[in-house]
Design a protein that fits this description.
Blueprint: E1 3-6, H1 13-17, H2 32-41, E2 46-53, E3 56-66, E4 71-79, H3 88-101, E5 108-113, H4 121-126, E6 130-136, E7 139-145
Parallel strand pairs: 4-5
Antiparallel strand pairs: 1-2, 2-3, 3-4, 5-7, 6-7
């Protein structure tokens, strides 16, 4: 199975909008429609892609990519509930990390996570993220050194 990050176009948009996390995870990530709308209004800093397993769309990722300030944050990351637990998310996030490493002045990738049952925190920890002790807008900040 090949995992790839692909641009979202008019040809695959409806498939990406259909992807959903499990109901108990909904409080941790916005729907893809909201994320894509935000990306279009923040084009100067939003970098977003669909996650594919071969030719099947399985998830969505969006970065806050501010190269002028050398600030890189995992803004949104989701894998559809039907495709979780297969390693697709881990492989996609490794590709995102590789992309960020190539950005100007990149030294770390940040993300924020909510607490509680279904939180993605343990997933991020397995991929090298660590809690910073900072709380931002009610969420715990995590950092991955590059």
């Amino acid at each position: 199975m090949t995992i790839a990050l692909r641009e979202i176009t008019k040809h695959n948009l409806s498939d990406i909008l259909k992807l959903k996390v499990a109901p108990e995870q909904e409080r941790f990530v916005a729907p893809n429609a909201v994320s894509i709308a935000q990306a279009y209004f923040d084009r100067e800093v939003a970098w977003f892609r669909a996650i594919y397993a071969d030719d099947t769309p399985v998830g969505f990722v969006m970065l806050y990519d501010e190269s002028a300030e050398r600030k890189y944050c995992l803004w949104r990351f989701m894998v559809d509930h039907r495709f979780q637990g297969h390693g697709y998310g881990a492989e996609a996030l490794k590709q995102v990390i590789a992309y960020v490493r190539q950005r100007p002045g990149a030294r770390e990738l940040l993300t924020c996570v909510g607490s509680g049952e279904g939180s993605p925190g343990p997933f991020y920890e397995k991929l090298g993220f660590a809690y910073t002790g900072v709380i931002m807008k009610g969420e715990r900040v995590m950092r991955r050194q590059l």
